[in-house]
Amino acid sequence: MRRHADEDVAVPEPAYGSTEEDEGHLVQVVVVGAGIVGAAVAYEAARAGAEVALLDKSLPASGVTADSFAWIGGPRGGDVPDPGTALRRRVLQDYRRLEEEVPGLRVRWRGALMWGEEQLDDGCLAPGEHVVDATEAGLLEPRLRVRPMRALHAESHGAIDPVAATQALVRAAQEHGARLMANSAVTALDLRDRQVRGVRTSNGSLPADTVVVTAGVDAPMLCGPLGFDLPVAPSPALLMRFTAPPGLVRTLVATPHLEVREAADGHLLVAAGYDGEIDQDDLRRAGEMMLRRLTATFDVQDVNLVSVRLGTRPMPADELPIIGPVPGVGGVYIAVMHSGVTLAPTAGRLIASEIVDGVEAEQLAGLRPARFRSRDEW
C-alpha cells in the first residue's frame, strides 16, 4: 500500500508496479516456481532492476520443464488467430535475443518437417514456412522409409535442452542480483487488506511487494485461499528417450503418429500424450509402441528404448496462457501456460515490464486471469 505524503491514508497499489515505490526502495519480487517460465521472469525482472527471489520446492527445472519436448516455434500459417497469437509471434525473436544475452542458452535451429494432419495451402504460410514435395522431404530427412508427397517445412523452428536453458537463465538472473532459494516450498501467500505482503515457505517467511506464481499445476493451490479458483488441470504427457545412430533424424519431425527430434547428446526424444495408468508396465509398453513407430518411419534397426518419463503439463481450461494479476488481490501475478518452454522468453520479458516498469503489455490483453470468474462472482 502507498500513502499520500500529507495524510496517513492507505491507497491501493496499481495493477502494475514501478521499480521504485519510494525513493531508494526497489520492488521486491518473489517468483514461485523455478521452471523455465519462472527462471525467465526472474532473469528479466532482476535485469530490469528489481530485487528478486526465485523459490522452488525442489531444484530449478526439476518439474515439468524437464519433461518437455521443447519445440520452439511461432504461429503456423494455417492457425486460427486467438488471444495467444500475439505472444507466440515474438517467441523466435526473443529466443534469438536470449542466445545473445544469456551464456549457455542455445537453440538447435534445425527446422521442423510436418505432414499428415491437414491440407497444405501454399497461400497461407507463415514466414519461414514452405511446402515441399517428396524429393525435397527426402533431402531434409534422407532416412525416411516413405517420403510424404507434400509436407510443411518450417525452417525457422528449433529446440532446446530445457533443463540447460533454465539453469542458464537462473545463473544469468543471479548475476543480476537475484537470489535462488531451492528446496523452499511456498505454502501460502501473506495478505493484509487484500494486498500481498510476502510468502510463507517451508523455511520461513519472505517479504514481497509482488509475488509471481509460475508454479504450474501447483498454482491453483496457492490461488484457492485468495478466493480465485485457477482453472488449471494436470495434462499427462510422455517424453521417451532412445539411442540411435547420430543424424538419423535431422529436423524436428511431426506426423499424426510421431513427434521426434534429436537431442544434443545424440539420443532421440519422442513426445506423446498419455491417458493410461501411472504404471511402469504401461509406460514401458507405450515406449515399445513408439519404438515400433520409429523403425516403421525411419530406415534403421539400431534403436533402443532408454527411458520413459511421465510429466504433468499445466493445462488451462481454455488451453490459453493465463498471465496477469489475480482479480481483487494486490500484488499477486499469475503466469501459467502450455507450452511454457516455448513461450517463456516472451512471457518473461512482458511480465517483467509490467511488474517492474509498470508498462501494461497489449499482447497479454486477452490472457488475463480476470477472464475467469472469481469465487465471489458465483
Summarize this structure briefly.
By secondary structure, the protein is an alpha+beta fold. Helices cover 24% and strands 29% of the residues.
Structural account:
With 378 residues, the chain is an alpha+beta fold. The chain folds into 2 domains: 2-67 and 163-231 and 318-377, 3-Layer(bba) Sandwich (FAD/NAD(P)-binding domain); 112-155 and 234-315, D-Amino Acid Oxidase, Chain A, domain 2 (2-Layer Sandwich). The chain is 24% helix and 29% strand. It contains 8 helices and 22 strands. The strands form 5 sheets. An 8-stranded mixed β-sheet has the order 8-9-7-17-18-19-16-20. The protein has a 6-stranded mixed β-sheet with strand order 11-4-3-15-22-21, covered by helices on one side. The chain has a 3-stranded antiparallel β-sheet with strand order 5-10-6.
Mean pLDDT: 90
Describe the strand arrangement of the main beta sheet, using strand numbers.
Answer: 8-9-7-17-18-19-16-20
Rg to the nearest angstrom? 22 Å
Count of discrete domains: 2
What is the annotated CATH architecture of the largest domain?
3-Layer(bba) Sandwich
**Largest beta sheet, briefly?**
8 strands, mixed
Sheet-strand content, in percent, reads 25-35%
CATH superfamily of the largest domain: FAD/NAD(P)-binding domain
Assigned CATH class of the largest domain: Alpha Beta
| Global geometry | globular
Oligomer: single chain
Number of strands: 22
Structural class: alpha+beta
